[in-house]
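Batch job 17 of 40 flagged for manual review because the log was empty.
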Amino acid sequence: MNAKAPAAAGFGREPTVAVYRGILEAWNRRDADGFAALFTETGSVVGFDGSQMNGRREIAETLRAIFTDHQTARYVARIREVRALGGGAMLLRAVAGMIPPGKTEINPAVNAVQSLVVVPEAGSARIALLHNTPAALHGRPHLVEQLTAELTEVARQGQLVGETGRDLTRRPGFGRPGSAPRGSCATRAGRCGVLTGYRVGHSSVFSRRQPRPSRHQEPR
């Protein structure tokens, strides 16, 4: 089932939020074609490790293989900012969490920061670039906990996308020496919050690899 891109008339916040919501909905229903349809013809996805998918066809083919071979987690997100970039382009920044299959709680190890550049194409708002980075927040486990709590609240309210919330990583004192408790993120091999990906061939997608191996999956 293909998703319908939001109309770009009066292009601004609402179509931008709608197209972001659309890709999360498409992912959650495991709809590869619907996900890809919300990108421009030459749109790109940048995954956790710098791997890229370029163009609707590659995005759709990669996700189709992933959904066939993996039980994927579902998304919940909160928008941080939506603003105009000029020339008709819009920027959306959000934080996202994932709820593993069969679970009800967010897995904090794969919290992410997502950025989208949205542009008008053929009368609709479409994504030119989706970029993902892990919300690892190394050395600041209290911020990981706060972000997880914030995303959990969105999920408990039955929402997929919460509206703009406070950015826990931009409060006064963030990032300065002494601004966070001692210690580091409590995951092994220094992988606190690293956004691992489903891999098919040489492509890597922006969400968590489940521990079920397949012939498509590259060893880590």
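Reviewer: the log was empty due to a logging misconfiguration, but the result itself is present. Strands lie at 39-46, 52-54, 74-86, 89-99, 112-121, 124-134, 161-162, 199-200, 203-204. Unflagging and moving on to job 18.
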